[in-house]
């Protein structure tokens, strides 16, 4: 079967997941602190995570198109569908931006104008870290990503309807847009990552952070791709996708997991070795107050894919591939949790201390930070919220999959993909 059917049963299951996520967000909001810090950090965490998966899926699609990676042709409809989640993703991120403008939350220290004027470091960064850049940068840059995603999708589906043509005109257009998108994506994604995540720890910066976050998005997207392929094959779709395709997806999951670990170690080692206070505070805070999660993050995201996928045959087996994909997906969701929660928590505690007329220093350095579910470690509300966002993501993905054939029959590389073999 080449035409995916998004039937009522699937809609009800995903709708139930979305309702669960909404209920968890509402419970979080009404049981939260005065600034609703847990609610807003959960909302930011999942919005950035799933919007990033959509973005990196377009990056993967563009990179494989540019590199003439014909083996992936049978899978590209999945990445096209993933990439279009950037449309609702932009709306989600604009809600965060509206919160910065309206002072609905205290996620970002730099959003407090009085605090910026009294802080020499943040004052120096204020030309970039400000509400205008956050809102309009998000709107313009993510809007540009969406434009490329929609054009590539348009030419891909038109190629199905009208045929490849003698000059392969549709594919040539896809390649042109892919080539233009890649460098644009590289530079603009770094700017967005600095705004959305790194600026939560406003005094801290890392030149490796954009690479690190991008690798985490890549692995999350590749994990979902493996799970989606396995699910669709189980439903009778994608019957031309073989163990050889699964093997190559597994190789990317294995290889980029090693690359992610290299970035994790490089960022940690270089900052720790230099021993510059404004840099080491990022890791000091996480090692002192989030130690179980800090080391669990490394163990899950490196040890599991490394030791299981080291063997060639495990990449080709549905059971082992699905297990690793699930673990890595959860692991990188936790990775983003650890990136976001500590900095936002300190900012909220500083705001509470300021409103009470107290001192800031002890809070700013995270001294004696108490263990709290939802911050120190994800609780049931965080898991439920993630399920809600994941259900929303797949509701949008399945809607897109149902709008075009799963097999791009007129793609000039379809025969290469149909006869793909891993030697």
Report on the structure:
With 423 residues, the protein is mainly alpha-helical. The protein has one domain (8-416). Helices cover 74% and strands 0% of the residues. The protein contains 17 helices and no strands. The protein has helices at 8-30, 37-66, 76-83, 86-102, 113-117, 120-125, 131-162, 169-196, 209-234, 243-274, 277-289, 291-309, 312-316, 318-355, 361-364, 380-401, 414-418. Helix 2 (37-66) runs antiparallel to helix 4 (86-102). The longest helix is centred in the last third of the chain and has 38 residues, at 318-355. The model has no long low-confidence stretch (mean pLDDT 93).
Main attributes?
423 residues, 0% strand, mainly alpha
Alpha plus pi helix count:
17
Q: What share of the residues does DSSP label as strand, in percent?
A: under 5%
User: Based on DSSP secondary structure assignment, what is the total number of beta strands?
Assistant: 0
Helix content: over 70%
Rounded to the nearest angstrom, the distance between the terminal CA atoms is 28 Å
Structural class by sheet pairing and helices: mainly alpha
| Topology as a string of helices (H) and strands (E) | HHHHHHHHHHHHHHHHH
Uncertain segments are none
Rg over alpha carbons: 22 Å
Number of domains: 1
Rounded mean pLDDT score: 93
């Amino acid at each position: 079967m080449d035409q995916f059917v998004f039937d009522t049963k699937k809609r009800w299951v995903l709708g139930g997941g979305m309702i669960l996520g909404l209920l968890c967000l509402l419970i979080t909001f009404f049981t939260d602190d005065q600034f609703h810090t847990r609610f807003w950090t959960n909302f930011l965490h999942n919005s950035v995570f799933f919007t990033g998966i959509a973005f990196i899926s377009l990056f993967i699609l563009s990179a494989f198109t540019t590199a003439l990676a014909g083996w992936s042709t049978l899978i590209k409809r999945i990445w096209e569908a993933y990439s279009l989640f950037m449309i609702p993703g932009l709306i989600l991120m604009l809600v965060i931006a509206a919160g910065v403008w309206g002072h609905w939350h205290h996620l970002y220290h730099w959003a407090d104008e009085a605090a910026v004027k009294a802080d020499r470091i943040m004052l120096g960064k204020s030309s970039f870290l400000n509400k205008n850049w956050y809102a309009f940068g998000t709107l313009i840059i993510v809007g540009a990503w969406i434009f490329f995603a929609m054009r590539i999708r348009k030419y891909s589906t038109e190629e199905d309807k009208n045929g490849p043509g003698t000059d392969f005109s549709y594919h040539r257009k896809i390649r042109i847009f892919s080539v233009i998108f890649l460098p644009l994506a590289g530079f603009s994604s770094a700017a967005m990552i600095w705004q959305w995540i790194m600026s939560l720890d406003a005094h801290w910066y890392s030149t490796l952070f954009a690479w690190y976050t991008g690798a985490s998005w890549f692995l999350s997207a590749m994990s979902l791709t493996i799970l989606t392929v396995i699910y669709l094959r189980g439903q009778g779709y994608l019957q031309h996708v073989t163990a050889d395709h699964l093997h190559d997806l597994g190789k990317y999951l294995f290889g980029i997991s090693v690359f992610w670990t290299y970035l994790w170690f490089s960022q940690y080692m270089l900052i720790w070795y230099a021993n510059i206070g404004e840099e080491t505070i990022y890791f000091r805070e996480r090692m002192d107050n989030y130690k179980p999660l800090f080391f669990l993050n490394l163990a899950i995201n490196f040890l599991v894919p490394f030791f299981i996928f080291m063997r060639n045959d495990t990449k080709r087996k549905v059971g082992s591939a699905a297990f690793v994909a699930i673990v890595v997906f959860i692991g990188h969701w936790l990775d983003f949790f650890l990136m976001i929660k500590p900095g936002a928590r300190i900012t909220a505690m500083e705001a509470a201390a300021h409103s009470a007329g107290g001192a800031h220093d002890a809070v700013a350095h995270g001294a004696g930070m108490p263990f709290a579910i939802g911050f120190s470690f994800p609780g049931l509300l965080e898991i439920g919220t993630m399920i809600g966002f994941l259900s929303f993501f797949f509701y949008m993905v399945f809607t897109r999959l149902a709008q075009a054939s799963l097999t791009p029959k007129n793609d000039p590389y379809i025969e290469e993909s149909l006869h793909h073999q891993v030697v």
